[in-house]
Design a protein that fits this description.
This protein is mostly beta strands. The protein has no helices and 27 strands.
Length: 294
């Protein structure tokens, strides 16, 4: 007995064919049973003039593996008892077929500057996990492709969310073994600035993904001043601390926007206030000044 081929897909027609003769070399007219041992399934047929042909298929969710098959041929006497029997063994291989792809995202909401972690999961016809290579495409809220990652299904993949990345719903689109899947994740709004002090110049740059509207407190010695930078995306402004009106000389300085704080020392010239911006002259008091950019 033999199979028409070595391996089959679930639901695909399977054919076992063979011949049977008696010990005296006469052709056998009788019966044949093919038993798939692990599944305890029996396929039966008739032997006619020494030849037989069995046709069957296995269910859609049949597990991918090798299945031993015991093929028995025999006659029956008038009472229905088996006589003149013989048997042989075959191996039937059922292929692994990818049927569903999913993407498991560790955190559906993420702040810029953090790492997106996700695991693509590919399952076969019986729900067993398959390991194969895949391509994972990251898209921003406007559907623009930002990056593509290659990696195995079943393994955690990572994508660095840069500071300033657009707020809103992003997508991970996965392709593996002709299966596709898509999941969304949300990048949260980030109002954040980079604040640097170089000599007597304060640099404030928007590194977030929305306009920066926070007030920045500058405390020089015991006097406090508010700076209102109002930065668009990626915009940077410079502020000359000598124009604040603080006394000349060396002072301790603290700069804060409520989340970030910068401390140190600064030496000022003690020049008088002379600040002009697009909105006109700045109004200052002894302990408060809304400082315009240079």
């Amino acid at each position: 007995a033999s199979l028409e081929k070595e391996a089959y897909n679930p639901e695909e027609p399977i054919v076992i064919k063979g011949s049977a003769t008696k010990e005296n070399s006469q052709t056998l007219n009788g019966f044949v049973d093919a038993v798939i041992l692990e599944k305890q399934t029996t396929i039966s047929g008739i032997i006619n003039e020494g030849s037989f042909l069995l046709n069957f298929s296995l269910p859609k969710n049949t597990r991918a593996q090798a299945y031993p098959i015991e093929v028995s041929v025999y006659e029956k006497d008038s009472s229905g008892k088996r006589i003149n029997g013989g048997s042989t063994s075959l191996i039937l291989i059922i292929n692994q077929i990818p049927t569903s792809l999913d993407i498991i995202i560790e955190s559906p909401e993420i702040q810029p500057g953090n790492i997106l972690k996700f695991t693509p999961t590919l399952l076969d016809q019986s729900g067993e996990q398959m390991i194969t290579s895949g391509i994972y495409t990251i898209k921003d809220p406007s559907d623009k492709i930002i990056d593509q990652i290659k990696g195995d299904t079943g393994s955690q993949q990572e994508f660095q969310i840069k500071n300033g990345s657009k707020a809103g719903l992003w997508k991970v689109f996965s392709v593996a073994y002709k299966n596709t899947a898509e999941k969304t994740f949300k990048i949260l709004e980030q109002e954040e600035a980079r604040i640097e002090l170089r000599n007597t110049t304060l640099y404030i740059q928007n590194i977030g993904n929305i306009p920066y509207t926070k007030k920045v407190l500058v405390k020089i010695g015991e006097e406090s001043y508010n700076i209102d930078p109002n930065l668009d995306l990626d915009e940077e402004k410079e502020f000359n601390l000598n124009k604040l009106g603080a006394p000349g000389g060396s002072h301790s300085i603290k700069i804060s926007d409520g989340e970030k704080e910068l401390t140190g020392d600064v030496t000022l010239t003690g020049k008088a206030i002379s600040l002009i911006s697009d909105t006109g002259k700045q109004q200052c008091t002894a302990f408060h000044c809304d400082l315009a950019p240079l």
